[in-house]
Each structure stands twice: as structure tokens, then as C-alpha cells.
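Listing 4. Sequential folding, example run.
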Amino acid sequence: MGFQLGNLYVEKGEKVCGFLKLPFTEDELPVTLIYGQEEGHTVLVDGGIHNAEYVGIECVTGLAAKLQPKDIKGILILLHIVNVNGFKARTVSVSAEDGKNLNRVFPGDANGTYTDKLAYFIEKEIFSKIDYYIDVHNGDWFEDLTPFIYCVGNAPEETVAEAERMAQAADMPFYVKSQSGKGGAYNYAGTLGIPSVLIERGCNGMWSEEEVAASQKDVKNILRRIGMLKTRPTLAEMQMRVPKHMNHAHYVDSEKAGCWFPKKKAGQIVKAGELLGELKDYFGNVIEEFRLKEDAIILYQTISYSVPENSPLIAYGHYDICIDDMGNTHQHTHDELHKHRKEHYDDHAGIHSREMWEDMI
């Protein structure tokens, strides 16, 4: 008995490459199906949820070319480019058809616009068939990013635990548990009981063979961790470090539109009080200045000169106790930060939780 995914079909012990037809458009999604010689889990690995994040796309495309049925236990779905509509048009983060960010509309809507329908199709036709999900991303053209991995945190307890185990197989300095339960593909999959992770590596709208190879290494080691990939890791694929849980991830937004002057780079450790960046008006006057109340690591940040109002600027993380804007110490959750944004707004930092920002990168 074989495996059917839409118009594509693969027999046990076979590998099939083809285009998955979508019922609402002429666009087709490039897919590789690998059915191993042994039964096991069904796993989805995809790239191109954000169509200009090329490290993820080439990571999945390369794995599809290299992996064979003899390597696999179970069924592996490799979806090379999810937002092929935006990829062809070379738009950034959004579908060319309706200007929507695919990673902010899950579970989608069968009666919505193009992007809503695409998310709905993926949720109904693919998520319904899988046991695990690996979503491969990188920073967009306007983002500077240091490598790390997300795992779902707003899901059933056993799903979160398994997703965390997946994340710990990546060769990264740290992992972050996402508290978002909707909007993003992997976030929403987690609420369905599917252990899911999102790999982040690369940025600035560019890609390199080294970054692709590193993400492929992570995907393969995660597949090994969950019992799908039967091959032993080569020396180059050995995990050299186990990521540490980054307890707290916070987000900084601009209040106003302006010109952005970042002072730090992604991956840098910054001390409390250090200047992270300035937002200037169109005459060169500083209108916002951004500093942190605590030592932290910059996860990713906007690097574009132009910044709209209420726009994401910086995401940072740290391991220790948070310091709120009133000078007290307590453990912040994402929801707490969002709730207290207006109550404890810092004139210089503008810090609040942006769960949905996780879905933009």
C-alpha cells in the first residue's frame, strides 16, 4: 500500500518528485516524497514559507536530491518551496497575489484570498497526514540574524516535550520555545499535537553553501533523533554543541516611522544600558533611542534604513530573571509583556512581546 498526497503517489521503497496541484490556482508546489523500506513516522520538512528565505529552500531541495528510500524509515515529505507564488515574483515575505504573509494566516481560510487558501490547503491536506514537522527558515532581506531554533511551547505537554527534544538535536547555541499558538505554520501544527521546530540560519536576503549545509546537518540530525533517518552521521554531521534553552525572548518595536540606525549585530551580547540603535526623522533628528534594562543576546534585528511606525526592530533573549520597566524583578511571560506594554512602556526601549513577530522570519 502506497502513500497519496493530493495528485502525487509513492509506493513503499520508492522516491517520487513532482508538482503538487493546488485546487484554487494554477501554481503548483515542488514536492519530493520518499517512502522508506521500513514503516515509521510521516514527517514534513519544508522551505520557502517565506519565499525570499533561500537558505531554507536550498536546504530542502538539496536533501530531496540526496536522500534515498534506503536511508528512511517511514514517509518523508519534502516541500521545496511553499510560497511559490511569491518566489516567482521575487516579493519579500508575502504572496504576490494578495500581499499577505503566509506565516501569519494559519490555519487559513477556504473562502479567503490566495494566501489564506494556501494555508488552509496545507493544514487540511498535509498537516492531517504528518507526525512531525521541521520548518526551515532564515532572516529576510531586511533582517540580520544569528542561528538558533524555535520549538513549539504553546501545545499539549507531550508535544512540547517532543519538540524540545527535536530542537536539542540541532547544532545551535540556543533554542527558544514559542508561545504563539496561531498564525505561524509550525506554531499552529503544534496546537494540533504535531511536534514542530523552526530552524533559523542566514539573513540579508542571501544564502551560502555553508549555511545550507549547516541547516541540512540540523535537519538530518533531527530526523535521526526521531528515528526516521537510518544513516550514521558523518564526521561533518556530528553535533558539536547542544543548544541551551533561551528562557526569555522579547521584542522591540518602533513607535514612529523613520530611518533606522542599528548599533549592534545579531549574535552580539549587549550590556544593560548600551545603545542598540536610533530611529531618526527625515531631517536626521533622533526621535527614538533603544536601550535594554538587562544583559541580553540579539537574536535578530531589522537592518533596513526605512522603518514604518509600529514596526519590529529587535528581538533579544536572555537566560536570567527579567527586569521590568518599574525596576522590579520577576519572570516575564510573553503574555505578561504584552499585557503590560502600555502600563510599563519605557520611553527609550519600547519593549513588548510580539509573539507573531516570530512568524515573520
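-- end of first protein; second protein begins --
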Amino acid sequence: MAQIEKNSHTMEQNSTVSNTLEVDGALLPTPSRELWEKICNFQARPDDLILATYPKSGMTWTQEILDMIQNDGDVAKCQRATSTDRHPFLEVVFPYKRKPDLEIALEMPSPRMLKTHLQSHLVPPSVWKQNCKIIYVARNAKDCLVSFYHFSRMISLLPDPQSFDKFCEKFMSGEVLYGSWYDHVKGWWAAKYQHRILYLFYEDMKKNPKREIHKMLEFLEKTLSEDVINKIVHHTSFEVMKENPMANQTAVPSNIYNHTISPFMRKGMPGDWKYHFTVAMNEKFDEHYKKKMAGTTLTFCTEI
């Protein structure tokens, strides 16, 4: 696994997107070399829980589930603040916040739940040294691409994705925020054989949320009653979360997230890609996908 200290010497400021930095070929929402050095040197604690995903792969949803688990299904406690304020992002700087999330994380009491979209080899080394528990959620490439496209349309911090065709080409080549989807999901898949990582799939969570919640509970060594688990399933359903201002991101300033262009929580159902891909695009994507995923045991379903 590549060492993050080495990566920090290969950074270049990206001139086309403000508040971003290129690290080891991946564009990150980190505005400066100084902040990246702080991320590299971040000191994890043994009882930290890390939630990791590629963008638009179920992070907000899984965060809500984990927050409900940690608070024994207490809905009021889980509505104490918005999802962007409850658990810090290691590498993200929100321009409307008084300080970077990294600094907020440093001030938090234990146990902490921290979020990241970083590829596995870019995670602060202390996370591995402290043997932190990590939950990773992966989503099939086609639905992830579609969701990322619509997200890029509504967020002012990212460049205009232009047409879906052009965004598809950039996604396949890894020229999007956080880099290659292929590298991301495969890197974390490989890391799970060496570290305490629960690797989950977005589609499995959709098909049988209760079963996946049981996996999380076992991984976290926690027990909840079936009544509480059913409560968690209900309150973290797409329909309920979409109406929850503490989870649907409508509290984020409109100059950052423009929900009139596209809601943050748009559809959330596997298979939506079929309404965006032409036959030719799908054939080209499938051919590229086979090459990029050759040799891995990692498999996805694209509809349920």
C-alpha cells in the first residue's frame, strides 16, 4: 500500500477547480498543501469508526444508519444537527463552516465517527496503525456515475459536468473528484483482507436493509432489539430521509447545493442508469468496465 507521506510530495494545485488539490492523480476537495499535510498527520484513535465510500455511494444513508445504531434508535438524538455537522469529513472543507472538518474532528471527544471519500492508500497512516474499524460502502458504477453527474450539476464547488456523455467519459478515465471509481472500490476491497473493514454494497442495503444492519451490529459488537432495528430501517428509508431536513442536505446554503437544479436525494434506486445510458454508451461502458475490473473477485449487481 502506497505511503501517504510520499504522495504528499507529488501534489499539484489544480487551476481549473477552486479549493481542490491533486494528490497521486486524484483531485481532492482540499484547498492547500498545508491542510493536506495535516490530513496526512491526523492522529486516529483506537475507538474511531471510519465510514468510507466513493462519492454518491450511500455515505449519507449509511451515516444515518450508524448514528441511529450508536444512539440506540433515538430519533431525536439523530436530529441534533445536520448530517454535515454531526460527523466530520477528514479531507473536505466546507466554505460556510468556521473551520475545516479536520479541526472539528480533533476537538471531538471519543468515540468519534469520521467520514472520508479517500482512496484506501490515501487514508492517514494512523488509521491503519490504530487498527480502526472501517465500514466501506460500494455502489455499482453505472448508478454511481448517474448520481455523481446530477450531484455535479447542483453543487457549485465542482465544475459544470456539461453533457452526460462528457461526464461519462471523464468518469471512465477517472478525471472526476476523488479519481477512478475502479481504483477506489478495488483498493478498499484489497485492503479488507489486511484490516478491520466491513465491506458493504449499496444494492444489498436496498434489497435487505435489516440484514445489512445486522452485519453492522455484529461488526460493531453491539446488540439492539428487533423493534429498534425495525425503527432504524423505517427512519433511514429513502422516503423518510428525503423529508428529513437533518439528512437531506437542504440545510446547506443554496449557493453551495442548489436543490432547484437537482435534489441531493434524487432517486436512490438501483437501475436508474437505464434511463440515462444509450445503447451505444452502455456497450462502450461495458467493454471498458470488463478491462478495468479484470482479475478482481469484486462483483456488482446493476439492478434489483
